[in-house]
Amino acid sequence: SESRTAILLEPFVHQVGGHMSMMKYDEHTVCKPLVSQELSFYESLPLAMRQFTPQYKGVVSVHLKKDNLGNPTLIASPSLQTESCGRLENAIGDSSVTIWHKCKWAASTGTGSEHALVKWSHTQLTKTFKDSCLGKMLLRTDLQYHTDSLLEDANRNQPERNSYNPWGLHCHRQHLNRMSSKHNENKLHQFLLLENVVSKYSYPCILDLKMGTRQHGDDASEEKKARHIKKCEQSTSASLGVRVCGMQVYQADTGHFLCKDKYYGRKLSPEGFRQTLRQFLCNGNHLRTDLLEPIILRLKALLSVIRKQSSYRFYSSSLLIIYDGQEHKENTAPLDNHLHFHKANSPAPHGTHHSRVDVRMIDFAHTTFKGSKCNHTTYDGPDHGYIFGLENLIKILQNISEGK
């Protein structure tokens, strides 16, 4: 029966950027459609980069299945190698995700439905849903968000506060629609299993930054290349080597996540980028100045690693900056401040002195390097566009830290 174990994939509610659908495989693992170039990167990952990337956990087969309401769901069939902690067989019948689909994307194929204002009410949530992980996540805050905040519309009045980020749901719905129109239910798709880098945070605040001055991969068509070049020229990618691709920040005063999408990020001026970085560190009550030093230290450590990676070009990859929106008591107690100061000035065991913040590189579908199986063009030296972006990011954070 081991081979028959079916794992129902839930949407990953903390996806703030990108266009590929990320799915939740289990509490500590996410998965995404496999791209051979990304697999090649993870399989030959330089040791020094491991602390800055999600842990690679293998490959899993996924197929589309209609639930008993006719809605498409994704089912993973783990092999023995990928099975993590022997999960129990999941029933697909009346599961929480079925209810989720019923409320969410049953009617998402019509063109006008993108404009629909979707509101959750507690009555729509059955007990099974409330007991699921996803249900618990949603019930932490007011259950509402607006799908219209995802439309690329210059005149739109974007709702400022969402209970959690709707971007991942938007990607997921689009992905399911694409899959169900293109493939039949029996087709197996390969997905990549990766560490869920936000699983240890109660209220993960995430900033997704597109790094570098160039976004198109070597494999891009002329049309795609021109499109990406234009996006870079018209955004902070050209001037700073970095642009906002998505963000969620927990607002302690309202109990909501404040969310921004890639369309917002593309329109920012360098000054607007600086303000957004400040906003990312603002919890609705005050600026989290305690996070600036650990983030800067982590970015400097990444910078020194990237400088040593000859031939690597991280085109279109993202950098995540993560912290917990729930402040821990020890940050405010004077005694613990003293201990904290002491700890900061003595060598900390690996990983502990950065535990409040995290910096991770993700999305390597267009990453190229010497020796890559999918490689056509080879480059010498490190990725200067990426380095330029990191240096500017560090400079801006240092200015915020100095109160400039």
From TrEMBL:
Pfam families with a match to the protein in the record: IPK (PF03770)
GO molecular function terms noted in the UniProt entry: ATP binding; inositol hexakisphosphate kinase activity
GO cellular component, one term: cytoplasm
EC primary class: transferase
Database matches in InterPro entries: IPK, IPK_sf
Keyword tags: ATP-binding, Kinase, Nucleotide-binding, Transferase
GO BP terms: inositol phosphate biosynthetic process; phosphatidylinositol phosphate biosynthetic process
Top-level lineage group: Eukaryota
EC numbers: 2.7.-.-
Family membership noted in the UniProt record: Belongs to the inositol phosphokinase (IPK) family.
Name by which UniProt lists this protein: Kinase
Gene for this chain: Ip6k3
